Amino acid sequence: MALLLDLANIVGGFLLAVSVLRLLPRVGDDLGRLAGRAAPIAWVVGLVALVTGGYYLIVHLISGPRVFHFEVVGIGVGLALLWGRLTGRPTPRDERPDAATGVRLLLAIFGLIAIVVGVQGLFTPDG
Prior knowledge:
6 helices, mainly alpha
């Protein structure tokens, strides 16, 4: 279950950060095409992140030892990816796919943080 949370953080972070990752020289176009192919399943990644993050948040609130940043970031990724489905309004990342300003930039920075947290979670012992 922890592996699902970490992978959802990494993939969800990538989907959120793609507007900034497209600006990278040489690999930006390829990353943009990859994110375009993965965009239809972004809601599945968001759902997995939200469910696993919520599960671990409840477990750590009830039985301790404390709330970790992995689950908080997972819940944030899940909410960001499911925003359009939860509210019925368009997501900020769908408005202008060629610019990273305002809310899109904030989501992209949060996506980069989610990638780092997901990779950290892969190397953190669960016990």
